[in-house]
Design a protein that fits this description.
single chain; 70 residues; alpha+beta; 3 strands; three-stranded antiparallel β-sheet; globular
Length: 70
């Protein structure tokens, strides 16, 4: 599994919005979709590197493309 340095959850949400995802629901986690995939981002600061790597993979992005969106 790829990993990236931990980042605040709001920064990850903004980057994924640039990638075409939108927020569908918020609670202890932020649920986002692009119409095909649904991803879940925990509300923790920072989101640890291992979890962030899984979120990026589930979103269908590479670490490099995600870092460009930050």
């Amino acid at each position: 599994m790829v990993s990236v340095p931990g980042i605040p959850h709001l920064r990850a949400v903004r980057a994924l919005e640039k990638a075409g995802f939108r927020i569908v629901r918020q609670s202890k986690h932020v649920f986002m979709t692009n119409g095909e995939k649904v991803i879940t981002i925990p509300r923790m600061n920072p989101v640890n590197a291992h979890t962030m790597g899984g979120i990026i993979k589930d979103a269908g992005l590479t670490v490099e493309s995600f870092q460009k969106l930050l």
